[in-house]
Amino acid sequence: MGLKSKFSQFNLECGTDEAGRGCLAGPVTAAAVIFPIGFKNGIINDSKQLSEKKRNILKPIIENEATTFSFAHIFPTKIDTINILNASILAMHKSIEQLKIAPEFIIVDGNRFKPFNDIPFETIIKGDSIYTSIAAASVLAKTYRDAYMEEIHKEFPMYNWKKNKGYPTKEHRDAIRKYGITKYHRKSFRLLPEQYQLDL
């Protein structure tokens, strides 16, 4: 039972999604994907439903089969300036902007988006588990973001980003208590549960 291939009547429909919104460190990353008409793939699913191994197998398949795809990182300094919701939307806009062919319609995972270049769009709650293009975008966003986190892990191995990818695990929070924060941390986020008591 595969995912649906399209929402709109348009041929060039792009799906977009982001990864890393709830992280304490690293970028928020979005991807956008347009598939050719009739594209089907039984394995593509919401990246959260797939193992890391499956995501890494799917990434080159998506990239080879897509009509066009793109991804974009928005980094912590920008996230801290414009807030995480705006940064997530900006990442999606940037990834759509970089597509080699402009979409005629955009489908977005979630319920928040801002118009992009007057292209009609629809926000779809849990869209990454309904539409192939959004699911594919979720896989690309996650794999590109994970690769980035593994890269910066080498610089600051004590936070174990290669494992937690910047998410607020106990280990990550303990490392922040012990070593403080890095240039990759989002300073506008409550990085530790007890922070609001310290900052008064």
Automatic annotation (TrEMBL):
Pfam family membership, one: RNase_HII
Gene3D superfamilies recorded: Ribonuclease H-like superfamily/Ribonuclease H (3.30.420.10)
Location of this chain's protein in the cell: Cytoplasm
EC number(s) reported in the record: 3.1.26.4
Keyword Cytoplasm appears in the UniProt entry: yes
Cofactor: how and how many bound: Manganese or magnesium. Binds 1 divalent metal ion per monomer in the absence of substrate. May bind a second metal ion after substrate binding.
Residues in RNase H type-2 domain copies: 11-200
NCBIfam families with a match to the protein in the record: PRK00015.1-3 (NF000595)
Protein's UniProt name: Ribonuclease HII
Lineage: Bacteria, Pseudomonadati, Bacteroidota, Flavobacteriia, Flavobacteriales
Gene: rnhB
